[in-house]
Design a protein that fits this description.
homodimer, alpha/beta, Aspartate Aminotransferase, domain 1, 7-stranded mixed sheet, aminotransferase (chains A, B), 4-aminobutyrate aminotransferase (chains A, B), Aminotrans_3 (chains A, B), Aminotrans_3_PPA_site (chains A, B), EC 2.6.1.19 (chains A, B)
């Protein structure tokens, strides 16, 4: 398509349809939707949540300039002299952002359904989080930052139990905290490797002299040739171990040395899933068979399989509960740990608090990692054997950050108090339905809409990469900040306040 | 030595000498020391800094129970059910800690010269940092945590320029921010690898199809077999790339796969350095020769050498400016980048703001990493070619944390306002002198005292590992929280308020 046709097509979609649908979802109270089914949530809470959170939130985007605005451009040029801004879209005035709306340096207010790459849970300047940010506990956590592994605070257990642990997925009762999603995954990988070797060696056995010597040379057996298996198009982070399991896009990996770890095919399903059950089952079986072959034949031993419930950065690729049930069965059969990476899918985004709750597994995964929307990062586990047999093995200076765990606690409380999981499910259903209508009317512009019954974790494909990128830019021009993923997909990652207004 | 003799020896050292020396250094105003030479610091500031910071700080430890206290033990047992506490010494009541003194759950107050593994810069509950923690900018940074690479805030440039960048070592004017020391080092390694390949390929050249394909398989040339060289006994972190350069202790590395990267010998010098100049020069030359051989002959190309100015975790091992000057020359000669890891040595700890300023290099290192005492983490650089040629290469969701950068800014201001670099130098001189006296009187208990003219970055060797561990425990029993490093060394890592009281 010529550039002018592309631009025109993109604008049709943006101006007349998508922007309006999203804006109305976020801001109009006229939509019909049942209030939360949970009888414990009060009528008051269900009716006035948005007003309670953000009384000054506007009803629609407020555009003062074209995108990007001149002040954003000027500030980016200045910042770029000292800080790499190549990936920056705009400079934001967070103090003037509110709820679902992000404010830029030019005082444009965009409806933000990207939310800092899926990392703002309860909207900008959420008053509950602002109160938590000024609490004596928070000030303490910031000024007296502890080395949690060696000098935990008197408050630490309570912060964990009331927050991160109270939201633990079914079957999990312990946590190890870290700093980011990449860090959380790498700590989980380390736990898996130590577990694997302890099973081989015997948990209470001493390390051999040979192991002690060779590990100082980065050589086997002390530094063993063990592997983590990940899936094609997976994204698990950017540090050296996590990047070795990331397979989303060459630009994430080029020029960086990687471990020779295996990848298995991830199902390439047809959407909507319920119309292609037979084909999709065959595709999932094909991938499971390929996976089992790798588990049996890979040159090094595989300690764990890591998987996202929905591959996010790699293109919002779904698989069915069947696939994950079989994956759990296969990993158990082969004595391999299953790590579920909920860094992007977790914290109420998919209509469950954790996306893997959609799978109805017989036995839970071995480790579940989290970060992003939770602000705090880390992994859940239950099996005591996943805790190394000696101190200073799963360890670093800070071992996480209490200031983030305090915010996580408030998030859990708010999700529970306002039943934001149910609300997300409802708004997601509404939004999916309306986007499906748009898709049927603009099949040349929107394809493979996906995320039905997965809250607002919704995406679709543009015709190609160029059209997608133009759409993302035009959407900003129309007042909507929305993100891309994969080669030519558009993804929605709003915070939870986006969900909250539908129920009014 | 039998356990009873060990215990006795340790107690002699603790009770009668070391504890008293440290306590007096921290709390007595009777010591003679010149006020800061800097004529711009006001007499008032130099005389009343400690009183200004911490009017309620005690003059000596306050011990209510033996170590560890019963409440610490009880709380550790409870916390351990949900969080790994194997490495924990005690549970701390940070809200009741003050200045140089850390309070535990039993309300014991210990003089803390370990300071959260060298990570508390200005004492517990420092009022300046508490004010910063309650500022509108901080609340904004906590509640509206930005993805700095894509949506930086209007405040970000100013926060960097007034803080992290204003403390940049000579020759550096740009920064990339990250989350921890390990993360900072890994980002620096990634910058080095991308730089290296860009030099080979030509900076503006496109990636080849083969590179794009192979990197998705974790294979060369897309994921090239390049290496970072580190030194024997180095510590650079715990993630998979940084851990591959860490060579401090098997327990840090066992069971974790590692890259097959080379290590060079680090000089094993004799102390005090000025008494063994000839022997030490020969030892440094031996190591430099070995290094050059590796640079020339290692099986894979080496993109960078990473080095700590003083190897900290690995045993407080020093080298002379000559060694580092030669290292800089060698790396330049071979077209290899030099990364200086100032995670533990930086931020005024050694009597300079950055420890590598002691070296008087002709040309600065290529990258300098920081974290810990700065709270914010990242790396400095100057050469534009160290910035990748495309967006989303040096990238992740958060790219650091403004809340930490705001604290770093306050730290820089305080260091400058009270000339804490000079004060550290003075107190370090005093402390070294008195510890040297102790060493001469107890040569069977204290050996290889080191850190002369390196601020309070001071360490010594115990007779053996068992004696050292007993000393660390007995010191806590005597009210001093002090740390170990290497196999049998004791290290001092006080915060800067420790330095401040000497000048009164």
């Amino acid at each position: 398509m010529a550039m002018s046709s592309l631009r025109q097509a993109s604008r049709v979609l943006v101006r007349s349809r998508v922007a309006r649908t999203l804006t109305r979802s976020a801001t109009t109270s006229a939509f019909h939707s049942t209030p939360p089914a949970d009888p414990t949530s009060s009528a008051d809470a269900s009716q006035s949540l948005a007003a309670h959170y953000f009384p000054t939130e506007p009803d629609m985007p407020r555009l003062m300039t074209s995108f990007p605005g001149p002040k954003s451009v000027e500030k980016l040029n200045s910042l770029d002299k000292v800080y790499d801004t190549q990936a920056a879209y705009m400079v934001c005035d967070y103090q003037n952002s509110v709820g679902n709306y992000i404010c830029d340096a030019d005082q444009n207010l965009y409806l933000d359904v990207y939310a800092q790459i899926a990392s703002i849970p309860l909207g900008y300047n959420n008053p509950v989080l602002m109160t938590a940010a000024q609490s004596p506990e928070m000030i303490d956590a910031i000024v007296n930052r502890p080395a949690l592994g060696t000098f935990p605070s008197t408050l630490w257990e309570q912060i964990l139990r009331e927050g991160i642990l109270s939201a633990a997925p079914k079957g999990f009762d312990k946590v190890w905290t870290s700093m980011s999603g990449s860090d959380a995954n790498e700590c989980a990988y380390k736990a898996a490797f130590m577990y694997h070797r302890a099973k081989q060696r015997g948990k209470t056995s001493e390390f051999s002299d040979l192991e002690r010597q060779t590990t100082m040379e980065n050589a086997s057996p002390g530094s063993p040739d063990l592997a983590i298996l990940s899936f094609d198009k997976a994204f698990h982070g950017r540090l050296f171990g996590s990047l070795s399991t990331t397979r989303s896009n060459p630009i994430h990996k080029l020029d960086i040395p990687a471990f020779k770890w295996p990848k298995a095919p991830f199902p390439a399903l047809k959407y909507p899933l319920d119309q292609y059950e037979t084909e999709n089952r065959a595709e999932e079986d094909r991938c499971l068979t390929a996976l089992e072959t790798i588990l049996q034949e890979w040159e090094s031993r595989i300690s764990a399989v890591v998987v996202e419930p929905i591959q996010s950065e790699g293109g919002d690729n779904h698989a069915t509960p069947y696939f994950f049930q079989q994956l759990r069965a296969l990993t158990k059969l082969h004595g391999i740990l299953l790590i579920v990476d909920e860094v992007q899918t977790g914290v109420a985004a998919t209509g469950m608090f954790w996306a893997h709750e959609h799978w109805n597994l017989d036995t839970p995964p071995d480790l579940v990692t989290f970060s992003k929307k939770f602000q705090a990062a880390g992994y859940y586990y239950a099996n005591d054997d996943l805790r190394p047999n000696l101190p200073f093995r799963q360890f670093n200076t800070w071992c996480g950050d209490p200031s983030k765990a305090i915010i996580a606690r408030e998030i859990v409380k708010e999700v529970r108090a306002h039943d934001l999981v149910t609300r997300t499910r409802q708004v997601g259903g509404y939004l999916y339905e309306h986007l499906a209508e748009l898709q049927s009317r603009f099949p040349h512009l929107m394809q493979n809409l996906r995320g039905k019954d997965r809250g607002t974790f919704i995406a679709w494909d543009a015709t190609d990469s160029q059209t997608r990128n133009m759409l993302l830019k035009d959407m900003k021009g129309a007042g909507i900040n929305i993100g891309g993923c994969g080669t030519h997909s558009v993804r929605m990652r709003p915070g939870m306040p986006f969900f909250s207004r539908l129920s009014q």
